[in-house]
Design a protein that fits this description.
Chain lengths: 347, 159
């Protein structure tokens, strides 16, 4: 029996979290707190909130509000792999690094350099690099030094418009960026400390025809999903064999395009460890996809597993799977709310 | 402006007569939700002042009632505006004013698309893309100079 048979899954709304006083742009689960989950959210209200689950009730509450540091919208946030540091990227052109010092979050470093709005921040798998991107069209790679020092290792130029998101590959030190210029760029180090664009995924190689807002990798790291203002999701694949041998330059190829599922801009996509792709869009809806392994005649394809219209009252800006065993998803919206969902199997 | 206006001599059109909405007849449920229509949306934006002239967008025919599409059932509005000149660098400011005014006037459930009329602007697709990228709009609305400019254009529309 197919575990994910259509109609076999149900999306339960667990909790709605209120507190932000403006649009909630993004959220990040702390990867080191799988047993008692913690996540951070950031907003147009210029604050970051830390949410923690109470073990007895299994409900989340706001544990801390990080404010009076960023002077404009906080657009994105990311935990270091150890879960000890939180990086926050703001329209105020800075990226702040926060450390949990005996229960209190303190801003221990501020990264300056971008000319204007910083839109996204991402840590590599080992926590030795941080990447940021901005409306100034550049991507910066920062080397994490002892004592909460961050040194700019490279300024990457190549995108012709704002860079919407940066994301490190889950296992290799290869960086991906997506942009208002409709492309995804792949950046790798050449062995001498210099970083270069090794591939551009654009409309000419089956890429997107409008702004690419987000991307996410599967657990193995050999597939990537991207989402766009062109109302499609695209799946890309690389040669896992070459990747295992440490070839940073293994090219990514278009595998398939999922279209017709959202009817306004798709802002966020996230691939769960067990292979379920969640997407959230400006049509206020959530969609879940899974690889269709029935007929491989025409090559791999993905099918819709479940959908939820009106998951929020306004645009959905971010969807993120939790790190724990239960299939928890958090979504953030323009309505100022965060919702926690559980994708459960009907028994 | 020392450098001169982008369109120094715009054509001014007469304002359309304001239609008075008929009061609901006796017996109607006064709490019934009245659907939002084209005229209501037009009323929200007709008095927005042009960024460089002391005239309203209606008087300059930048917007007309016919250029507004409303689908109340699907909570959707599309406003198509016509810049007075093809190279109008004020097009994005006008678009921003329209977006802000509708954001403040319509219920939250509404989705709004703003675009320039096809063939009326030299960089039509770039302007449209910018006006409909909410991240860029959000960033623009944190820029005090732009906000002042938008507020000045919106001031008469509250009258």
């Amino acid at each position: 029996m197919d575990f994910y048979d259509d109609g076999n899954m149900i999306l339960k709304e667990i909790q709605t979290l209120e507190g932000h006083t403006d649009r909630v742009w993004s959220l990040a689960w702390n990867p080191a707190t799988a047993t008692s989950p913690v996540f951070a959210s950031c907003s147009g209200d210029k604050t970051v909130r830390i949410w923690e689950q109470t073990p007895s009730t299994r409900l989340w509450h706001c544990k801390a509000v990080l404010e009076e540091t960023h002077t404009r919208t906080v657009r994105s946030c990311a935990w270091s792999p150890s879960g000890k540091l939180l990086a926050t990227a703001s329209f105020d052109a800075t990226t702040s690094i926060w450390e949990n010092i005996s229960g209190d979050f303190e801003c221990v470093s501020t990264l300056e350099g971008h000319e204007n709005e910083v839109k996204s921040v991402s840590w590599n798998a080992s926590g030795s690099f941080l990447a940021t991107c901005s409306r100034d069209k550049t991507v910066w790679i920062w080397e994490v030094m002892p004592g909460n020092e961050f040194e700019c290792a490279s300024v990457l130029q190549g995108h012709t418009q704002d860079v919407k998101m940066v994301k490190w590959h889950p296992t290799m030190d290869v960086l991906f960026s997506c942009s208002y210029d409709n492309t995804v760029k792949v950046w790798a180090e050449d062995g001498t400390g210099d970083w270069h664009c090794v591939q551009t995924l654009g409309e000419s190689n089956n890429g997107h025809s409008s702004t690419v807002w987000a991307l996410s990798f599967n657990a193995e790291g050999d597939r990537m999903v991207t989402c766009s203002d062109d109302l499609t999701l695209k799946i890309w694949e690389t040669d896992v064999g070459r990747m295992v041998l440490g070839d940073d330059h293994a090219p990514w190829n278009h595998l398939c395009t999922l279209s017709g599922y959202h009817d306004r801009t798709i802002f966020s996509v996230h691939w769960s460890r067990e292979g379920i792709i969640a997407s959230g869009a400006a049509d206020d809806g959530l969609r879940f996809f899974l690889e269709n392994k029935d007929g491989l005649v025409d090559g791999p394809s993905y099918k819709l597993l479940l959908k939820r219209e009106k998951a929020h009252n306004m645009d959905i800006n971010s969807v993120q799977w939790g790190p724990g065993e239960t299939r928890l998803l958090a979504s953030t919206s323009d309505d100022g709310k965060i919702k926690i969902w559980e994708l459960a199997t009907l028994t | 402006m020392v450098s001169g206006l982008i369109n120094a001599n715009p054509v001014i059109y007469e304002k359309k007569e304001r239609r008075v909405r008929s009061a609901p007849s006796v017996g109607d449920d006064e709490h019934a939700v009245e659907p939002i229509d084209q005229l209501e949306v037009f009323d929200h934006i007709r008095d927005i002042k042009d960024p460089e002239h002391p005239y309203s967008l209606e008087e300059l025919k930048v917007i007309t009632e016919d250029a507004i599409e409303v689908d109340d059932n699907h909570s959707y509005v599309r406003v198509t505006f016509t810049p007075t000149v093809e190279h109008c660098s004020m097009a994005t400011v006008i678009g921003l004013c329209l977006r802000v005014k509708l954001m403040r006037s319509l219920p939250q459930r509404y989705k709004v698309d703003i675009r320039v009329a096809p063939g009326t602007h030299a960089t039509e697709s770039a302007v449209n893309k910018q006006l409909n990228d909410k991240e860029r709009v959000a960033a623009a609305l944190e820029n005090p100079n732009l906000v002042d400019m938008v507020d000045e254009c919106l001031a008469p529309s509250y009258a």
